[in-house]
Design a protein that fits this description.
Helices cover 9% and strands 29% of the residues.
Length: 435
Amino acid sequence: MTDKGSPNPIDRRRFLRLGGLGAGMIATGWAVGPAQADGRAIGAVHPGTQVILPNARQIKLMATDGWIYVPGTNPYLPDPMAPAPLKAWGFGFRNVTGLTTTQITAQRGKFQNPAPILWADENEDVVVTLRNQGLSVRPDLTDAHSIHWHGFRNAIPLFDGVPEVSVAVPIGREFSYYYRPVDPGTYMYHCHFEDVEHVSMGMTGVVFVRPAQNAGAPGILPGKYAYNDGVPDTDPLSTAYDREWTMFLTELWTKERYNGAHIQEHDWSEYEADAWLLNGRCYPDTLAPNGSQTAAGALVEPPGFPHLVRQPISSLVQGNAGDKVLLRFVNLGFQQQAMNLQGPAMRVVGKDATALVGRDGTDNSYLTDTIYIGPGESVDAIFTCPAVSTMTTFLLANRNYANLHNPGQPGLGGQLTEVRVHPAGTLPPQSEPNH
């Protein structure tokens, strides 16, 4: 986690740390981002002030550490310092939008894995304020943090989250990132400070942009569309859907988590993942329902699953017969994965937030039963739930069978979930993604 015995008195981490602190000191009382017409800055580091823009979507995230649950056992799992039933250390983000400073502070040491799902509308002003609360298990690590919207065409480097050219947020400070997305599709976000380590430790999440076509267009009804396809929802080229799920693929190296918590070094050339996660969980926990969050900010475990209190996002896909289901696949691990649906064919309509169906009538979409996805990539795929008279289950699983186990545990695990199709009219309309 830290470089020991380096002959250079200022290594990369110390240089970036100093850079983040310097930016924080400069920005206290001074605008560091471009100003609005009324003179207010849309990007600044403040001790406790959230940047407000009229009509902007306001999101506030907190960076901290904590413990999560991973099934199975090995020499590094469970960590003896972990509070039962949790087992492995990590750090990441929490959604603390609307919380008071006192409420935010109370959530220090209780990160969420993966980070909250974020979304915005095309051409919508979005302000994401990041507060760095520091690490509770390793207070000696004074790392700054940032938010990098991976794949976003950001015209202003200040808001890109790469500390060499923008700002990293030191402990106890905040920074507001401003975006106006114009390209619909599925993306990801992560910390870019010591990014290999921070991504591996859990500072990752899914963010997507909904197209303007959702509001309707000439000849197109308002609804849910993956992209601005320019055709009615009955057209074969349409990207219309009824329900959506993010499928966030990551892996975990338990030795790294243990060594990090116990102030031990590890050699990255020996990287050997031994747990594979889908939305932060390993099968069979992928089938558990969603967790929730109280008005005061506390995470609440899914009913009957106390060990998933820090892993609130379900991977259980459900739909009614005839429903079109959009799966937003994102891979922010370090290995290529192959997710196979053993049922209805998926039509891939987008890749890396780029539509494969065009308004000019071009069609580069394709049918497949397997999504091949490398690190840092996203894929949007739609399937139609078949007609059924009783609830029918299909498996959605990694075709790499080595990734379908849990550490030291027999039987299936890892990146595996189910698609459950119900008779028409069984389920109510979906309220939000992954629900």
